[in-house]
Amino acid sequence: MRFGSLKDKVALVTGGAKGIGKGLARACLQEGARVIITNLHEDQGRATQKELGDLGRIRSEPCDSTERDQVESLVNDIIQEEGSLDLVFSNAGAGDQHRVLSAQPEEIDRIFSTNFRSAVNLAQCCVPRMVEQGSGGHLMFTGSEHSVSLPKGNETLGFSFYGATKHAMLIMAEWLRNDLLDTEVSASVLMPGPVLTESVINTFEMLEREPDNPDLRAIFSKEVEGLLRERAITTDQCAAIALKGMRAGLFYIPTQPHIFDDIESRFGELKASFEALNLK
Predict the structure, then answer these.
(1) What pLDDT score does 4 carry?
(2) Residue 246 has pLDDT above 90, yes or no
(3) Is 248 exposed, middle or buried (0-12, 13-18, 19+ CB in 10 A)?
(4) Contacts of 161 (CB under 8 A, 6+ apart)
């Protein structure tokens, strides 16, 4: 489903009170959509609702997307109040840092619940309702450059299980796209590299205050910091690319050119493996 104007469309943005989600909410409001954002912290959600309220109709609702019954209740409420649900941005998530050999089981379970289970819940609760409407709809998952590779320069960041959740999201979305071929509902995956969210800005500020902090530098070397700063885009830039990609009918929506190099590097290694095994 391709959208032209978003005027009077109803858009749900999970995790919409800050970061990429807030950028998506702002972009949709600027185009005339009616926006519902969710956040675990009601105060933060209300603050964003107030901040963006001059741009259009927006309301914040508390919802834990890892809880299926909360998502179901939210979707029912939106359709009852707004009359339809046209756009869904599955954006709620977290970026915890864990190493493969040291992560605790509960830490792994938590990040998969936050990043992956929440996306499954949203798809299962929203997509059937959008299909039933018969007027079309779109679901965009916020994946990551980590959906398609271990980005060069990120090796010290310890995003192993974060990356695993984003890989899982990508293949799930590919299967969903296939399942929706005979409907008017479509899906896509936003694949951003570094984005200047509140947490990233806070990290840069800590590095400025404590440039020689050994604990910080063990993760963010000066080379890694420089690479992240060079590649980072704003949340508004990320949102603009997301809507541009959706309008173009793209399934994969990367946001920075370096992501292609990382994909090409993985492809090159895979190609060499096929050649070494005489499988061409």
Answers:
(1) 78
(2) yes
(3) exposed
(4) 96, 98, 100, 103, 107, 108, 111, 112
Angle (CA) 125-128-134 rounded to 5° is 140
Q: Is pLDDT above 70 for 1?
A: no
The DSSP line for 188-223 is EEEE--SB--HHHHHHHHHHHH-TT-HHHHHHS-HH
In degrees rounded to 5, what are phi and psi of residue 253? -125, 85
Angle between helices 198-209 and 222-231 in degrees, nearest 10: 140
User: Could you read off the pLDDT of 17-51 as tens digits, one per residue?
Assistant: 999 999 999 999 999 999 999 999 999 999 999 99
* Each residue's pLDDT tens digit, 116-175: 999 999 999 999 999 999 999 999 999 999 999 999 988 888 899 999 999 999 999 999
Tell me, what amino acid is at 73? S
Consecutive H or E run containing 77: helix 68-82
Reduced to 3 states, what is the DSSP secondary structure of residue 104? coil
CB 12, CB 87: distance < 8 Å: yes
CA geometry: angle 49, 41, 95, nearest 5 deg: 105
Judged by DSSP in three states, 102 sits in coil
Long-range contacts of 259-265 (CB under 8 A, 24+ apart): 259/145, 259/148, 259/149, 259/151, 259/191, 259/193, 261/152, 262/145, 262/148, 262/149, 262/150, 262/151, 262/152, 263/148, 263/149, 265/149, 265/152
Residues whose CB is less than 8 angstroms from the CB of residue 103 and which lie 6 or more positions away in sequence, other chains included? 160, 161
pLDDT at 95: 84
Residue that is written with structure tokens 């990233």 in the block = 200
